[in-house]
Amino acid sequence: NLEKQRAPAASRFGRHQHYYPLASLDQARRPHNILGMVTHAFIILVLITAFSPEASSFSTRIRSSCSQISANKLRAQGGQGRQLTTTTTTTTALKASSNENTWRSAIIKNAPDNEPDALEAIQDICTSTPCRSPNTSKGEQGLAFLFVSQKYSDHFESMVKVAHQTLGDDTTLLSIVGGGVVGGGIESDDPRVPAASLLCGVLPPSAGIEVFMFGTDELPPPAASEAWKAIGRGQDVPSYVLFADGFAPIQQVLDGLDASGANGAVVAGGLSCPTFGVESPTVAINGKAYPRGAAVGVGFSGVVGLQTVVAQGCRPVGPAFSVTEASENVIEELDNKPAVEILSTITEGDYLTDEDKRLVESGGLLCGLAARGDETGDGTVPKGDYLVRQIFGFRVPGFMIGGEVRKGDILRFHVRDKGAALDDIRTMIGKAKTERSFAGSQKAGVPLAAMQVSCVARGRPLFGSSGVDLANVGELVGGEDDDGEQPAVGGFFANGEIGPVGVAGVGLGSGKQTHIHAFTTIAATICDFSSLEGAVASEGEQDVEDISAWG
């Protein structure tokens, strides 16, 4: 029935090449199943790994949150044995005993970075990680996200083709190149390390997903276009995951997605991390990688939606100021005084402690613009509700920042701070869990998995060790259990993080305006609202006849 309902949308939008309902995707290709090794061969493989440093010098570490050990091939190469070593853990969403609600994540780290070995590793991870194939006769669909580190970017196009072929056409795949990747209970936050991770699962039968793409040659329609309502499928608060590179028409896409629901939308994602000076693709849908300037995404409908948490990596210093004169990204006056004069007062005056001055010297002074609409009645702004932007130049009497600023905005200077970042992610995760508790089990839904999108400046560069953000994000899907089993969390380190401010999401109220953040971690929890009466907000065909705005 879902396919029948979505088929008309495919005919309306297919020729515009912006919008790709699952009913219109290529169904010709099927995965090539890989024959497993026999038990005795696997035992020999383990013994070789344990006792032969020479044989294991080419090993690939795959840590997977799956309940089956991958059977990897052992083949001769130049007269030496080469093996792919698999380390496994077991996890299910909320540690459920049934596989019906199981999602999994896995990671490949320190793998050989030549293309044949990289593609074999991708094939292995896409074979071993999924708990099962979707039962299409029951209306189930698979969904997967592939995250590839910058070191693997040269092989990205080949990787997504192999991943799509292995997962099969019944699983929708979105992929992106990041500065690092997250999966299998590990953060690989060094872009120089060849790594990839996979987050995948099976959606409930009443869930709907639609993928879309925009680019510099395929521009999105205006935010006021009724075409966005069709993408939102008539939902009150639609949810989306969005991947893009820095040359994509990102703001136009965000404006349109925010307008696609009656009460806003919930959007989460991030910007890719391409190799400097290289124009190769960094985002993909299924087996197709799109050229520079593309934005790809997936929209959720029916009984599945997102709940998001945005944690800041900075803390405010000094008082708040009102922007009294500004033009585009140039702040000319603060509180009716030249902006550079105020900046000098902050850095040279008594506003900064010795610790603040040390942080300014190491990380620079940053600007925080209050998220519009988040001011309280007395004009103050909650601690975490600032959009942090870098100062990157001067135009006397003002200075330039990395974002648009308007007259009347509230500004407060910020510094990057490890302690504040740790405190904020703990606070925001706790706030999200509290709101879920008060919402009730039905309205809050059941968390299936979580996607973590962290700034490239977090991880070890900020905390001194890896896994700090991941340990907190995992709490949204049950956390690590007594046996050390890891929750299903996957993600990447981004050039910019896409999401709202604070906590938002289906079941927790209306959507919020979407922004491009810096120095944050965004956690997007995929939730099942099957038990929520009336959760399927869109049934039947959307009546959108005028699509001329799509160009």
General description of the model:
The structure is a single chain. With 551 residues, this protein is an alpha+beta fold. It is 23% helix and 32% strand. It contains 13 helices and 32 strands. An eight-stranded mixed sheet has the order 5-2-6-11-7-8-15-16. A seven-stranded mixed sheet has the order 1-12-17-13-14-29-31. α4 runs parallel beside α5 (156-167). The longest helix has 22 residues, at 418-439. It starts with a helix and ends in a 23-residue tail after the last strand.
What low-confidence regions span 5 or more consecutive residues with pLDDT below 50?
1-99, 533-551
Give Rg in angstroms.
Answer: 24 Å
Distance between the termini: 31 Å
Could you estimate the helical fraction of the residues in percent? 10-25%
Strand order within the widest sheet?
A: 5-2-6-11-7-8-15-16
Number of H- or I-type helical stretches: 13
Strand percent estimate: 25-35%
| Secondary structure category | alpha+beta
What's the average pLDDT? 78
Spatial shape: globular
Number of strands: 32
Q: Major sheet: size, sense and barrel closure?
A: 8 strands, mixed
Q: Short summary of the structure?
A:
This protein is of the alpha+beta class.
